[in-house]
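Project channel, design review

CF: Before we commit to the Mobiluncus curtisii constructs, I'd like one complete example in the thread so the newer folks can see what an input/output pair looks like. Taking N-acetylglucosamine-6-phosphate deacetylase.
RD: sounds good, go ahead.
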Amino acid sequence: MTIYRADTLFDGNQVLGPGAVRVENDRIVEVFSGPAVAQVRADVDFGSAILAPGFVDIHSHGGGGEAFTNGVAAARTVIATHLYEGTTSIMASLVTDTLDHLESQIRELTPLYDAGEILGVHLEGPWMAEEYKGAHDPQLLRDPALDEVQRLCQAGPVKMVTLAIERRGGLEAVRWLVSQGIIAAPGHMNADYDVMKAALASGAQNVTHLFNAMRPIHHRQPGPIVAALETPGLPVELIADGVHSHAATVQFVFAAKGRDTVLVTDAMAAAGAPDGDYLLGPLEVEVRDAVARLKSNGSIAGSTLTMSRAVRFATYTAGVDIWLALHAATARPAAVLGRTDIGIVAPGAYADLVVESSSLQVQQVFRRGQQVR
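CF: and here is what came back for N-acetylglucosamine-6-phosphate deacetylase:
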């Protein structure tokens, strides 16, 4: 048993002020706040630091020079890279590829899910709009035929699927995914406002990186973005790096969606690694000044973000409230997955903790009760 104390305890949803956490094995068993903190004899006191839940990233492709598409050893490099920066729970996102390759990748990642090392698999492709494909191979894009969607989702722990809902079979796929407890996430789409509203009525539960790779807002054709922003309770992903979204856009989304904003990294292999040449699925990418772009046409090809950087950008560059930004990196993404054992500091939750300075620099990281940084 170990008791950790800090002058500021953030539990994923609110600031508790000075607080302490009692950890036994891999779980939090007690949380102290208010007058009770003065009676606690802490084993470790972090002083003026912020003690918060570990970050939860539901959309990440790679890091540390590796990608989730490259097998178990590579996936563990990705996990370790982001863990060092405070992400204690991560989803393995896969990019557009052939169905055979995607099925193989899902099966390779399954042992990591079974071991609790990843949150599951997110399929970002191949069911995308050609007009908004982003950094995906246009020759491999296809309609979301239900038998193909079922084939991949039944190959392993697929927890979320990004798809262009306007493509033939899109709404049918949404309904089937929802019936299986899999998150249907509209994205990389050319859907209009009405189709987006139909997808939401069919149970779509998340929006993949809002603004990026989707039909933009027009005053006579509001499109999917307005539909997402006006829907209460609908979480929207946001890549807060100043490349995918301007700081003013980041501030606007937080103002519009508040506690339904979900920070994601959409990181590729160069996150936590130097500039250079990389692959994103089968496509060649060059990273210069920490910005990833396809060699073929210059399209943005994922980010080089870590979640700690995303939180700092949202807070210090975009002017978002610090606690709202931290909520968007912890409790809210966990809630997208229906998880109540991660992203929060509460009895029964995993002892996934991040110690940060007042300027949100990660100082120490604990996962499942073990210090990893």
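RD: helpful, thanks. The mean pLDDT is 97.
CF: Residues 99-114 form the longest helix (16 residues).
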